[in-house]
C-alpha cells in the first residue's frame, strides 16, 4: 500500500518562470540602489553569461541553484571593481532580496486543496526539489511533512541520491511511495529508476509520451490518480 507521496515543487505546484522573473527584478532593483556599478555593467540577460562563467570556475556547485546565484553575484561585483569586503556584504544582501522574492509563489488551481485532501487521507507528504523554494516560506509547512533540496543533498534529480535519502528518512520501500512531478527526466525517470511509482503533472498539455504510472492535466485529478495507484498496489 502507498504510504507516502512526494512532490516536486516548481512547475508542479506553481509556475516558476514568473516567480524567478520577479525575484530577479527585485534583486536588480536593490543592486541599482546599493551597487550601481553592477547594474551599469550587467543586465538581467547577463545572468546567463555569469552562470556559465562561475560554473566553468567551480563545476562542483552545479547541483545548487543557491550556490550558483551567490557565485554569480560575487563574481560580477568583483568584476566591476568592488572590494572583497564590499563584495561579500553586497552579494549577501542581494541574495537575501532574491531569495525572499523567490518564495512569493502563486499556487496552481486546486494545489492546496489537493494536498489537504491527501493529508486528511493519512498520507505522509514530502517535497523533493532541485530548486530553492522552501515549504516553510511558501506556505506549505502545514501540509507537507518534510523536504529535501538539491542544495542540501548535493545532487539534483534524476540522480538517485535525493530519492534514496527520502526513503531512508521515511523508512519506507520504493513500492510504498508515489512521486509527483512535471519533469519527465528529473521526476518520472528519476523516481521510476528506483521502483517508485510516478504521476506526471502535465499542466500545459504537452503531447510527449511519458512513461508515468498516471498522468494528470489538472491538480484536481491527482487524488483520484493516487487512489487508482493505491488500489493497484494493494
TrEMBL record:
The keyword Transmembrane does not apply. GO terms for molecular function: hydrolase activity. Keywords: Hydrolase. InterPro entries: HAD-like_sf, HAD-SF_hydro_IA, HAD_sf, S-2-haloacid_dehalogenase. Pfam families: Hydrolase. It comes from the Bacteria. Transmembrane segments: none annotated. Gene3D superfamilies: 1.20.120.1600, HAD superfamily/HAD-like. The keyword 4Fe-4S does not apply. This is HAD-superfamily hydrolase subfamily IA, variant 1 and 3. It comes from Neptuniibacter caesariensis.
